[in-house]
Amino acid sequence: MTTTDATAATSAVLSVPAADPAVAAAHYAARLAFEADVSDVHADLAAGVRGVVVVDSRSDAAWAQGHLPGALHIPTARIAELAPTLVAPGTTVVTYCWGPGCNGATRAALAFARLGYSVKEMIGGFEYWVREGFAFESAKGTEQRPIDDLTAPRSGISCAC
Q1: What is the pLDDT of residues 60-69, one digit of tens each?
Q2: Which contacts of 45-50 are long-range, i.e. CB under 8 A and separated by 24 or more positions?
Q3: Which residues contact 38 (CB under 8 A, 6 or more apart)?
Q4: pTM for the complete prediction?
Q5: Backbone torsion region of residue 17, taken as left when φ is above 0, otherwise alpha when ψ lies between -120 and 50, otherwise beta
């Protein structure tokens, strides 16, 4: 709560007023049109949902270190060359890279969009896939790490957000 009373605290949150609810609704709907979280991607892969393909846009070394089961490996620099032969038209592509500190998935999503694909970016990337306790494939085979309880419930049951 902002106030003119010199003795009361000034709100850092409200120093810029919140958006009009209709504007906020449009903003958040737009974000969801561009992003998918790792739990939703996992659910779709586990259910065998058709029309969605997950693409790992990292290097060969990163792919060997670990990747999502069922993902295609198309490094960003090769998307324009390989996507037309590997990804059917009309497919929704979900891109991922290392994690939130990397914009490789964003670059890959841009490359797919420029080719005419519907595309979403998996927020959190490979890092959050692993931190949420989902199995991944590596040069060693199938691996899985304990759930990081700062990213997902210890029970392994989806947070259902």
Answers
A1: 999 999 999 9
A2: 45/69, 45/70
A3: 122, 123, 124, 128, 129, 132, 134
A4: 0.88
A5: beta
Report the C-alpha gap between 76 and 119 in whole angstroms: 14
d(CA 136, CA 126): 9
Q: Are 49 and 40 in contact (CB under 8 A)?
A: no
Burial group, residue 69, by CB count within 10 angstroms (0-12, 13-18, 19+): middle
pLDDT digits (tens, 9 = 90+) for 12-71: 999 999 999 999 999 999 999 999 999 999 999 999 999 999 999 999 999 999 999 999
- Which of 151, 134, 129 has its CA nearest to residue 56? 129
Q: Is residue 154 pLDDT above 80, yes or no?
A: no
Question: What 3-state class would DSSP assign to 89?
Answer: coil
DSSP 3-state percent helix, strand, coil across the chain (nearest 5): 40, 15, 45
Nearest alpha-carbon partner for 54 in 65, 66, 69, 43: 69
Taking the C-alpha atoms of residue 39 and residue 33, their distance in angstroms, rounded to an integer, is 16
